[in-house]
Amino acid sequence: MNKLRAVLVQTPLWIYFVISVYPLVWMISYSLKNNDEIFVTNPFGFPTHFRIENYIAAWSQFNIPRYFINSFIVSSVSTLLIIVLALMFSFAIARMRWKFRESVRLYMTIGMFMPLQVIMIPLAILVRDFHLTNTYGALIVPYVAIGLPFSCLIFYGFMKSIPGELEESACMDGANIYRMFLQIIVPVVTPAIATVAIFQFLSNWNEFMLAYILISDEAMKTLPLGLLFFQGQYSTDWGGMGAVMTIASLPMVIVYLFFSEQVENAMTVGSAVKG
Amino acid sequence: MRQALSGKLSGVAVRPAVKRTSLRKQLIYFAFVSPALLLFTLIIVLPFFRAILFSFQDWDGISSNIEWAGWDNYITLFHDKAFLKSFLFTLKYVAVGTVLVNIAGFFLAFAMNFALKSKNVLRTVYFMPHVIGPLIIGFIWQFIFTQVFPNLADLTGWGVFQKSWLALPNYAFWALIIVNVWYTAGYLMVIYIAALQGVSPDLLEAAEIDGANSWQRLWFMVLPLVRPAITICLFLAITNGFKVFDLNFALTKGGPFGSTESLALQIYQDAFSNNQYTLASTKAIVFFVVLASITLIQVFVMKRKEVEM
Known about the structure:
By secondary structure, chain A is mainly alpha-helical.
């Protein structure tokens, strides 16, 4: 009876497994085929010839390395800035007693509920007025600001749970506020830093809407924009498109496969906070 | 901190000293929060107020004179067929999507309880689409709908695969829903799994002994116990549904005939393709008010039920 039930439950799960994984496997598989194989001779099966040339062509003839570097610079610099600014902010709010800290915290929290669609028009004008269009700053500055409310909340929650004795003893030893921040609090919140880093890097790496609005210069495009450009220009070269998409998603998938639990936690912890 | 501590310990005696340095302390605290605060204000808060201002103005985004329009933009919206169409589409997309995504996510999580050995593999794969990002997912599925489905039709002869899903308005809607469910179910599943782990097996066993069947246990015990997770997941599905842009853009670009144009996509098109900055801002403000009211009501209603429990 139990066995029957197990089979009954497991079968849909495995069917959904196939539905889940097939589009991804298949993206990789057609990146290794040419158009003839994709459409006519071998549309469903695994590639027979392993045509690496799609990757070589994508990497050498198009701007893929450029997009890749841009994506990396934008994502890592903004993630780093978010972490530094959010740590400083949360430290002063969570660990220090002062008059306006509660109102400052509330003010920042509101930002989590602000849809990007509402602010994107004035934001685009702002970026233009600051002469940031088509620079790394055009993306980094908004990404940092958008990432702050969520990150501050995570750090705040984490720092709140640290017992006060830690600082009191540091105080006795004569540590000033800066040392307290850098040598006591920051090391303790390392797990939260990892969470924020994963979450922010991933969302910045995949961010498309703002990049699409703020970047038009070929040399400054990030991977999602490059993908779109490639799709428009070489819409018939499906093998090449598959290769480009694989290149764009592979880094994140590899990170995820190695740290799946951390990534899942990082990406769903925001939901717990928001509720 | 030292001041705060000693001030608390010794009270009145050190007050003058506390006062003088506390100003210094306040400045230091302010220095800690101000970079984040300034950036947040400049990039999020001010643009929000500017968007409200824009919604009462008339401007093409380029010329130097901005005219005051009063409520004209809002009145225009009510006669704007494209806007109403997009509004209805978005509402329908959110309603259908939210229900299906949550059912799928919950049942994946629930069924996971029975798949002990393969749990980790399944979970990792179900969540994977969320790591890849909606743009690539949209492109992959676009290819599936336009190229793989005809192949499947040849193979199976089934009518569902013979339709061109992205070119027929009704089918395009369901194509978006399918991809949305496929993309989001694994994400909500992770939240539901965490919630289900908090449901004590002893409690369920006791109910089983008392004669409750599986459906009764699921309906009367498990669901009420994971209600906080349901609140969160509904909230996430509603907000993400309203904000859909990347998926919509990659899959249908709003077509066919504007039948699948989400509000986010339309706001983008109006502002940056047609230079109607102020009209687009009005749409954005309406979008904001609707989204905020719906989610506030949803969270309020669900939370109240949690308390009653």
